[in-house]
Protein: Sigma-70 family RNA polymerase sigma factor
Organism: Lutispora saccharofermentans
Amino acid sequence: MLTFLGVINNENDKNKAEKIYLAYKNTMLYTARSILHDVCLAEDAVSQAFIRIIDNLHLISDINCNKTRGLVVIIVRNISLDMLKHIKNKELIPFDDLENTLEDNDNSPIDYIISEESYSLLLLCISRLNKNYTDILRLSLIYNYSNNEIAQALGISDGNVRARLHRARRALMKELQKEGICNGKENFA
């Protein structure tokens, strides 16, 4: 931890990074361990994730909120999954086992969702989608990150974010149609 803080020049950023680490280190380790099933590999994943978080400190304004927690969990989960792909003779964990990782038990401040039931149904429909679509939609719709911020956080291009968002919105519309929620003309911009 001290090594990572040493590369930060700004004292405010050092304090912010330290607070983020203290607030989310257990969540990050839990997420990584649930994917990698190895404490040492999980610690490596947390270290790599923390480096990416330091690179994206400007995206975090409030440390103790669902938006920050979601970003941290998605970053450590993606890094853990990448590590898992590179380990020979290991099976990937099914998406069904991972979807509980991002579930929030706290109330999330979403202005355009009228009721808690609608929000729960939206989360359910999002969770049924491909993992890449789920991550992009959560960051965009739920946590209100911009395309550029999502690209930086996930380490992908802006064009990739736009393409995934477009496909994810279409897939979400189909899920909402199955639930009888919409007729396909609504837009999640």
